[in-house]
Write a structure and sequence with these properties.
This protein folds into two domains: 88 residues, no CATH class; 159 residues, Jelly Rolls. Helices cover 39% and strands 22% of the residues. Helix 2 packs across helix 3 and helix 3 packs antiparallel against helix 10.
Length: 311
C-alpha cells in the first residue's frame, strides 16, 4: 500500500494521467466534431467566455455535462481527478441524471414534509404554498382545456397505457397557443422561479397506466406536482420510497432520482407539474445553465441533448 501511494504521488504517475486524459479528450472531441462541428465550436467558445466569470467558479468546479467535468476549463488538476473518478460522481446509485449534474447541490428524493429544516426546505414550502393557495385556478383552467389534451410523443417508449398532457412550457420553451388559453394560470406560474427549459403542464393519466422507471436529465431543478384529481390506487416510487399524490396539495421531488408510476385505479389521475430551479443555485449559475442547456437543445443531434435523452 505504501509503494502504491508513493507511485500515485510520483511525477511519472501524474504525467501518465495527464497523457491518458488528454488522449481521451482528443478522442471525445474528434468524435464530436465529426458528428456536429457546430456544437463543438459553440460549446468551446461558450465555455471559454464563461470560465472567465468568477461567478461561475463553483458550478464549473463541481459540475458535469454528461460525464465531462466542466473543471477542465478552469483547473486542469481538479479536472484530471474528477475525470478519472467520473463513474463515481453520483453518491447515490438511485440518482443518475444523464445530462447535467452538480455535486454541490444538497439532494434528496422527496420534499414532501411540511417541516422545513433547511433553507432549501423553506424555499420549497414557499412555492408549495403558492401553488396550493391557487389550486382553484388550476382546476378551473383544467375544466376549460381538458378536452384539448393530447398524447405526449415523449411518452411512447416510457409508458404502458394512456398518458395525455396539456403543456404550457415544454423542455424547449413556451407553447404560445396553449398559454393564450390560460392567462390566469400563466400569471401564477410565471411568478415562481421556474427552471429554464423546464416543463409546466397538465398531466392526465388514465386507468391502468404504468410509467417505466427512468432518471430525469438534471439535479438542477425540483419538480412540483399539484394534485387536482387523485384516485386512491396510484403509487409513485422515487428512489426506494413509495408515496402517493395528495388531493389539492403539492408533493415535490428531485426527478434526477430513479422514479416510476403505478396507476391501477379505475379513475383518471390529474396533476399539474411544474419544474423550478434548485433553491441553492445563484442567479449567475441559473443564467449559466440556461445558456448551456439552450446549446444542447439547439444542437439536438448531439449526445448531450435534452431531446436525445428524453427520446
Amino acid at each position: 500500500m505504501h509503494l502504491k501511494k508513493l507511485f500515485r504521488n510520483s511525477p511519472f504517475y501524474l504525467i501518465l494521467q495527464a497523457f491518458i486524459v488528454q488522449f481521451t479528450l482528443i478522442s471525445i472531441f474528434f468524435r464530436s466534431i465529426v458528428k456536429d462541428i457546430n456544437f463543438t465550436i459553440n460549446f468551446l467558445l461558450f465555455m471559454y467566455r464563461e470560465s472567465n466569470n468568477d461567478n461561475n467558479k463553483r458550478i464549473l468546479q463541481g459540475s458535469y455535462l454528461s460525464d465531462l467535468p466542466l473543471s477542465f476549463f478552469i483547473n486542469f488538476r481538479l479536472f484530471i481527478n474528477k475525470f478519472i473518478d467520473r463513474k463515481k460522481r453520483f453518491p447515490n446509485k438511485t440518482q443518475q441524471p444523464p445530462l447535467f449534474f452538480s455535486d454541490f447541490l444538497k439532494s434528496k428524493s422527496w420534499y414532501h414534509s411540511n417541516k422545513a429544516v433547511s433553507k432549501v426546505d423553506i424555499e420549497v414550502e414557499k412555492i408549495k404554498t403558492q401553488l396550493k393557495e391557487n389550486v382553484h385556478v388550476f382546476k378551473k383552467t383544467y375544466k376549460k382545456i381538458q378536452y384539448q389534451s393530447s398524447e405526449d410523443k415523449r411518452n411512447k417508449n416510457m409508458a404502458d397505457g394512456n398518458w395525455n398532457v396539456y403543456p404550457l412550457y415544454s423542455g424547449t420553451g413556451k407553447i404560445s397557443k396553449n398559454c393564450k388559453e390560460c392567462p390566469e394560470l400563466l400569471s401564477i406560474i410565471d411568478k415562481l422561479p421556474r427552471f429554464a427549459y423546464g416543463m409546466a403542464y397538465y398531466s392526465i393519466m388514465q386507468p391502468n397506466t404504468f410509467v417505466h422507471g427512468h432518471f430525469g436529465p438534471t439535479n438542477a431543478r425540483l419538480r412540483y406536482h399539484l394534485g387536482l384529481k387523485i384516485p386512491k390506487e396510484v403509487y409513485f416510487r422515487v428512489s426506494n420510497n413509495l408515496n402517493k399524490w395528495l388531493q389539492d396539495d403539492c408533493i415535490v421531488l428531485d426527478d434526477s432520482y430513479y422514479h416510476e408510476v403505478f396507476q391501477q385505479s379505475d379513475n383518471k389521475r390529474v396533476i399539474f407539474l411544474l419544474d423550478c430551479w434548485h433553491p441553492e443555485l445563484s442567479i449567475h449559475e441559473k443564467i449559466f445553465l440556461t445558456k448551456l442547456i439552450r446549446l444542447a437543445i439547439i444542437y439536438s443531434n448531439h449526445p448531450a441533448s435534452t431531446r436525445k435523452i428524453y427520446n
